[in-house]
Amino acid sequence: MATMNRQMIVKVQFNRHFQPYNTTKKRYRLAKGSAGSGKSVDTAQDYIIKLGDPKYQGANLLCVRKVAESNKDSTYAELKSAIYKIYGGNYHRYWIIKSSPMMLESKITGNQVIFRGMKDDGQREKVKSITFDRGKLTWIWVEEATELYEADVDILDDRLRGNLDFNANLYYQMTFTFNPVSATHWLKAKYFDIDSPDIYTHQSTYLQNRFIDEAYHRRMMMRKERDPDGYRVYGLGEWGETGGTILNNYVVENFNRDPGRFDYMVNAQDFGFNHANAIGEVGFKDGELFLCREIYEFEKDTSELIAIANQQKINKKLVMWCDSAEPDRIKMWRKAGYNALAVVKEPNSVAAQIDYLKQTRIHIHPSCVNTIKEIQQWKWRKDEKSNTYTDEPVNFFDDAMAMLRYSIEMERRKGEQPKKRRSGRKTSF
Length: 429
Known about the structure:
Blueprint: E1 2-5, E2 8-11, H1 19-23, E3 28-33, H2 39-51, E4 59-65, H3 75-87, H4 91-94, E5 95-99, E6 102-106, E7 112-117, H5 121-128, E8 136-143, H6 150-158, E9 173-178, H7 186-192, E10 199-204, H8 214-226, H9 228-234, E11 250-252, E12 264-270, E13 277-285, E14 288-297, H10 302-311, E15 319-322, H11 327-335, E16 339-342, H12 349-358, E17 362-364, H13 369-377, E18 380-383, E19 388-393, H14 399-407, H15 409-412
Parallel strand pairs: 3-9, 3-10, 4-7, 4-8, 8-9, 11-17, 12-15, 14-17, 15-16
Antiparallel strand pairs: 1-2, 5-6, 6-7, 12-13, 13-14, 18-19
């Protein structure tokens, strides 16, 4: 696929099965797919090509997540990556990229991209008042669309109206990209269970993505064996069931992450290589848990992870609770100056940790996108014969969940919780 701007020919590699999705002009375009299917990458590249094409001059894009800050690590990151991939080292000649506030603008067409959330009435009101210096709001991309309420989407839909006669090539369109986590979700009834000339639906899986590496294929095969229900959603892009989720007592919100506001803080780490190595910075306040930051990396050795933690200025003085099955790794972290300690694994400790988490209000900062994905799908294992859920969690795609389990070690140790110093700063355990 190619377009020409200022005598520059742009060539981009796409997965072929997205071609009808990229070319449809129907008002509602829905990409339902598995993890790793390439739907978000394709959508970002499709928009960058169109927004930079004079044919679509006057078009503008609004990217939406439930929580506005989540755009930074999703839509904004994907669109920037598409710019770098398409325009290479000369991207700055063709695009303006701003980070605060997040905004993208084509120097060729003047078309812009802005980013918003729909978390509360204040954010919804900001969406209602969006205007552009040139052209109109023509396209809306709703990433992780299952996060939004139907009323949120109705507000967005109302923004796509008015005459587009100034450019006959323009059209109004809402794009939804998501994993189909629940067959009872309103998206299914509103867009998939009806026959409408205004709706285009597309399904994709990682098996169709020619850019996926072999290691990812192996991880998905492991998931197929360990978590058949999860594989149907995250491997095959099919609608999932809602039953069996372990944690529902959490909220994703933007909160004050200043260490001074917490009773105390810890770091926690679940070791991994082929599966994710998850590190979390966790604060506790009045018995509630606040996940402030995460590091979530695949195929990184311990020295590489330490370098990442150093770069992100993870507080070395805090206790870092780690899996006791990896004493050599704990030793390396301690040599690097981190206060790494092993969690105590008594009989039924996993069940006890889960029970404690279920009774604790959990706050997750929207920047912790991998923890959010895991907690939404963390389920009890299902007995296929009896069609009932057991008391054993599915042991797959649960690395951030293990990190959360380790983070409450001091909470579970009665009488060992650290206290505030008189200065108001926190001690480590």
